[in-house]
Amino acid sequence: MRFVTPITLAFLSGLAATTASAGDVAELNILGFSQNGGVFAFEEYGVQDGSGFPYANRYYVDTASDSYVKGTPVRVRIDDESASLQAARDKAREQGEAFVSQAELAANRGYTAGQNAVTELSADPLRMAVNPRPVFPAIDKPLEFRLETIALGELEQCHGMGEAEGFRLLRIDATDGGKTQIVHEDKSVPQSRGCPTGYSIGAIQTFAGGGGVSHYAVLIAVRKIGFEGPDYRWMAVTGKF
């Protein structure tokens, strides 16, 4: 019979605690808008926890309907842990050209009015207020959003590992007595979101399109149950201001 010493046990316990939190955090890359502001695009990419496979996803959002452009998202995963992350990103970029070209997005990237990484500890993850453009003194009304979580219980995709959460995104008009508008509210969550357990506001991207119409995209970080720990993925809520 083989005995485990207290020192060995302590080491193994520490190792288990370390690996238990080794989830995969997707990198966010804001791509931009189509020329008229009708489509907003962003990329998330990383190496999948558990498998070690590189992946890259591109999302193209119709800003008028706040829904994915038909035929998207573009999702690429190379099922080979020796493959490079850049190979996955290049493949996703190539497929994305069918929807909005990289050149058009780059030429109409807009402005990142606010941004917080998921590792940010000092910022409020549920609230972001920004001046939409770097013009001083400001000529635009402030854009303010607040996020609330919604308990959805244990969904099928949670596989008994926890309870899922949805979210509600509110737009606050500080110049109109704090008038509140619901811009997004989950009634359910799609299978593609996995088992989400939390959310935070990651960025606000703005774009002054033609005809005096300005668009915004609120990037939401989605924390979900992963294979080796919590994973983070991204989604966007779009609108006009």
Quick tags:
14% helix, five-stranded antiparallel beta sheet, mainly beta, four-stranded antiparallel beta sheet, 241 residues
What would you say about this model in short?
With 241 residues, this protein is mainly β. It has helices at 6-20, 85-96, 102-107, and strands at 27-33, 39-47, 54-62, 67-68, 74-77, 111-115, 127-130, 143-153, 164-173, 179-185, 196-208, 214-225, 230-240.
Question: Could you characterize what this model shows?
Answer:
The protein is mostly beta strands. The chain has one domain (22-240). It contains three helices and 13 strands. Strand 12 and strand 13 form a beta hairpin. The longest helix has 15 residues, at 6-20. InterPro entries: DUF2259_secreted (IPR018725). Pfam families: DUF2259. This is Secreted protein.
* Beta-strand segment tally: 13
Question: For the CA atoms, what is the radius of gyration?
Answer: 20 Å
The N- and C-terminal alpha carbons lie at a distance of 71 Å
Indicate the structural class: mainly beta
**Global mean pLDDT:** 91
Percent in strands: 35-45%
Order of helices and strands: HEEEEEHHEEEEEEEE
Number of domains: 1
Low-confidence parts, pLDDT < 50 over ≥5 residues? 1-20
Helical stretch count? 3
